[in-house]
Amino acid sequence: MTTIDKTKPVLVTGATGYVAGWLVKRLLEDGLTVHAAVRDPEKEHKVHHLNGIAENSPGTIKYFKSDLLDVGSYAEAMQGCELVFHTASPFTSDFDDAQKELIEPAVKGTDNVLSQANKTPGVKRVVLTSSCAAIYTDAKDVKDAPNNVLTEDIWNTTASLDYQPYSYSKTLAEKKAWEINKDQDEWDLVTINPSLVMGPPLNPKSTTSESFSLLKQLGDGTFKMGAPKIGIGLVDVRDVAEAHFKAGLTPSAKGRYITSAHNTNFVELGEALEPKYGEAYPVPTKALPKWLLLIIGPYVNKSLSRKFIRNNVDIEWKADNSKIKKDLGIQFKPMRKTMEDSFQVLIDNDII
Q1: Residue 77 — φ and ψ, nearest 5°?
Q2: Cβ neighbours of residue 143 under 8 Å, at least 6 residues apart?
Q3: Domains of the chain
Q4: pTM of the entire structure?
């Protein structure tokens, strides 16, 4: 049981990120002092949304310049903190060198932050933003799981540097975290493992999250002939932030937490948008046949390799979220609300 003193500051790495922004908001509204570790605290457009939230909250925000690859760069930010949220990690499918752009920042960054926790007196808990990608690579992996359901006991064994390197980076980073945690007894580790995160960003103009390029494609005509029926899990960004908050401050929280609200697929995401936006935007409500995708997929989108199509299209995705509901009392938002709130932000900001 780990009790956190709320009068002490709390560290959030990657504080300008998509999930981190909502977490910072939640902490500030609860009156906490947030040490926000970011790469460029001077870049006003990166932090203005957090400043706005801080001005209207009982909590306080302080910025610290930190970099995932610089050893010791989190030392100052971590001083005096009992609770550390490590959310910073790259999420992109647009890279030239997976080792340099995905694996190294994810693994070395985790090593840096957690090794710093070892050197900082008083740290009691680290909450790591991991991913369901550390549990599985393809929907096909669900078929190979016990009872065809993903649980916290399962680790990803199918991703590699050459195939789905993002999933590989999340797996290696989380494994590194548990390894560092095991070698000491000052602080405990809790991991949040979200599926695909959607929901409104707090800073839409500079949101680079991969989920937004998918959302955009759902409305810009990319899928007007139909969408690939790719099995996925979906969760609202606001629920993911709440999961972090509760994982940090619930004394009995422990281990990994699958943070996924809905077992779904790309076609159902389009169907969730259709009632409100179907008349004005070409949102998909039907599935492209798998045989057709196998022919055209690799030409349409480089991430739609034939292997990926075979392993994900028309395959049901299923995860068990009972642990986080029971331990942390998380209640998930309905899919339609998540999708509509996300899509509306793209419209309001002329992104679509």
Answers
A1: -65, -30
A2: 315
A3: 10-348 (3.40.50.720)
A4: 0.95
